[in-house]
Structures are given as C-alpha cells and as structure tokens.
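User: Reviewer 2 asked us to show a designed sequence for the structure in our supplementary figure. I'm pasting the structure tokens here. Could you produce the per-position amino acids so we can include them in the response letter?
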C-alpha cells in the first residue's frame, strides 16, 4: 500500500518521513499489500528506496558512499546533497540535490551506452535493460479516472526508474526516455537526435503541468531548432 499521489496511503512519501520507525526499509517491507505485483501501477518512492537497501546490502557501502565512488567522482560532479533517513541510511526515493550540468552528465553517459569520456561507468546491457519498456502508465493501470490521471501522470511506459514517452515533433512522434522528479526536474534523453535536455522547476505535486514540457519545449522548440531545414 504505497502511492505518493494518495495522501491516505500508508506508504505515501510524506507519511514515510513522519511515521515513527527510523528504519524506512523495514517500515516499507511491513506495509500491507494493496494489489498483487504487476496488477496496478502507482508512483511509490518508498519502493525505489528499497532498491537502495538492496544495493547497500550487496555492496557493503552506504548509498552516499556508493554514489560518490561509482557516479559522482567519475563524472566529476560539483557540489551535491543526499538526503539520509533518521537511522543514517541514504535515501534513494528522492530529494537529491545536484547541479543541472551534473544531471546532464548522467544523461550523456546513458546516451553513450554507459560510458563517460572513454570510461565505462555502467554496462551497456544495464542501460538497455533499465530503459526498456516494462509497464504501461494509463488510467486503467493506475485505477484512476481520466481527469485524476491527468493531474498526476502522462501516458507512457516505465522501465527501471526511467519513464518512456513519445515526443510530438510536427506530425511525428519521437521516442525518448527520462528521469523525472517532483516539481519538474527532468532529465530527457532523445537518442534519435543525439540529444540530452535538463529542466528544473518548482511545480510540486502538479505533474499535469511539467509533463507537458516535453512536447511544448523539446518537441516544439529544441528539436526543430537543431534540425536542418
């Protein structure tokens, strides 16, 4: 029972940070099951944070240390910030702060198949697997009405922590994949155009606003500007 778009959900991210158990991983694992796996889609930060628990257990490193070693230092990040849970563990569900140009580096590394300036950061296999379509995001899969759906989501498909959408460019639809954060923090990769775009914003809990940016700006302005006429 975890849904960030439902304030009554016991796994809602706001509740996660205000409940009394300092072990977020244990709290999440103890939540009741609302649906069978694969039956419904819900945006759930607590579930992604569980992936962080698996990473920490598999590597024996704290998440901030692992991120610094594997991503931040090889990509020459500037200043950045990680949220930590009350028991001192790194939080993977969101709330990381970094410079837009450093977020852009992550997209460029993915565009280049997991390589940054000649150095292998992640495997090409993982790049392909993590961005591959896994589940459709529709009113039917979320269990929402059309009006409710448009307040929180856009029609597309999800991979492993990546979202996939079609960007409208004139009379064509161009495939992209993106990492997005609440408020309009968007890292968009458009392989067909060898393009990586980053947006930042503060339209919190208003996905219906910033979900329109990819068509309005990427499809309507940026791609036409770099396309030979």
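Assistant: Here is a per-position design you can include in the supplement:
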């Amino acid at each position: 029972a975890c849904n960030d778009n439902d304030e009554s959900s016991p796994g809602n991210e706001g509740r996660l940070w205000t409940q009394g158990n300092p072990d977020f991983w244990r709290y999440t694992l103890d939540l009741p099951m609302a649906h069978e796996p694969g039956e419904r889609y819900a945006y759930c930060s607590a579930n992604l944070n569980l992936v962080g628990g698996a990473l920490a257990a598999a590597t024996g490193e704290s998440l901030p240390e692992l991120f610094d070693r594997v991503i931040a230092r090889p990509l020459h990040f500037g200043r950045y910030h990680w949220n930590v849970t009350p028991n001192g563990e790194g939080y993977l569900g969101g709330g990381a702060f970094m410079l837009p140009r450093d977020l852009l580096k992550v997209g460029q590394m993915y565009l280049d198949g997991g390589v940054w300036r000649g150095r292998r950061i992640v495997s090409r296999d993982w790049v392909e697997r993590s961005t591959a379509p896994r589940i459709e995001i529709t009113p039917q899969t979320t269990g929402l009405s059309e009006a409710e759906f448009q307040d929180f989501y856009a029609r597309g498909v999800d991979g492993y922590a990546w979202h996939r959408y079609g960007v409208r460019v004139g009379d064509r639809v161009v495939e992209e994949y993106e990492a997005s954060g609440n408020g309009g923090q968007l890292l968009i990769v458009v392989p067909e155009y060898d393009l990586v775009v980053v947006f930042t914003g503060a339209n919190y809990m208003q996905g219906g606003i910033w979900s329109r940016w990819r068509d309005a700006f990427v499809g309507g302005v940026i791609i036409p500007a770099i396309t030979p006429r």
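For the response letter, you might also mention the following. The CA atoms of residues 169 and 219 lie 5 Å apart. The longest strand covers residues 172-181.
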